[in-house]
């Protein structure tokens, strides 16, 4: 697990099924992280996470290259 966007970029040589990216991270924001992952041909599914305005952040994260965006805190349905 990476603690920052910059640290996440160091894992690029690895193959992942899913990458979760927080929109509001320290050092490098989630949009920049997603753009750089896609520029470096990361083909994993990328899901953005946001505690901000979900519709605005979802559009921005998808435009940056995310596959979708979820609102934090995440709710787990235990049905």
TrEMBL record:
InterPro entries found in the cross-reference section: CheY-like_superfamily (IPR011006), Sig_transdc_resp-reg_receiver (IPR001789), ST_Response_Regulator (IPR052048)
Keywords: Phosphoprotein
Entry-linked PANTHER family: TWO-COMPONENT RESPONSE REGULATOR (PTHR43228), TWO-COMPONENT RESPONSE REGULATOR 24 (PTHR43228:SF12)
Protein name: Response regulatory domain-containing protein
Ranges annotated as spanning the membrane: none
Modified residues (4-aspartylphosphate): 22
Keyword Iron tagged: no
Occurrences of domain Response regulatory (ranges): 1-79
Pfam families, alphabetized: Response_reg
Source taxon at top rank: Eukaryota
Biological process terms in GO annotation: phosphorelay signal transduction system
């Amino acid at each position: 697990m990476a603690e920052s966007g910059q640290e996440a970029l160091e894992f690029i040589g690895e193959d992942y099924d899913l990458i979760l990216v927080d929109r509001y991270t320290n050092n490098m924001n989630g949009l920049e992280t997603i753009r750089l992952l896609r520029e470096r041909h990361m083909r994993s599914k990328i899901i953005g996470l946001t505690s901000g305005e979900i519709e605005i952040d979802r559009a921005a994260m998808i435009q940056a290259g995310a596959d979708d965006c979820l609102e934090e805190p995440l709710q787990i349905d235990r049905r």
